[in-house]
């Protein structure tokens, strides 16, 4: 079942990267992205979110995501 959700997320992420203009026309502009990322920042944000969704989905499907989360955030939850 995890692979089905992973593939769906990859498809949505690819759609976000390829059809960015549709997302902008459907959901509107992001003031934060335009301010922080410059002109065209909303489009850049949608593309970055799509790429992040694809990478996180691939990591989740291969079992790497749990290891990365433990390595990055593990020290915050150490029980002494």
Automatic annotation (TrEMBL):
Any stretches that span the bilayer, and where are they? Answer: 7-29, 49-70
What keywords were assigned to this record?
Answer: Membrane, Transmembrane, Transmembrane helix
The protein, known as? DUF3784 domain-containing protein
């Amino acid at each position: 079942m995890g692979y089905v959700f992973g593939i769906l997320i990859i498809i949505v992420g690819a759609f976000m990267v390829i059809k960015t203009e549709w997302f902008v026309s459907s959901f509107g502009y992001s003031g934060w992205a335009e301010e922080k990322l410059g002109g065209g920042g909303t489009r850049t944000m949608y593309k970055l979110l799509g790429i992040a969704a694809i990478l996180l989905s691939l990591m989740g499907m291969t079992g790497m995501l749990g290891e990365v989360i433990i390595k990055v955030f593990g020290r915050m939850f150490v029980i002494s």
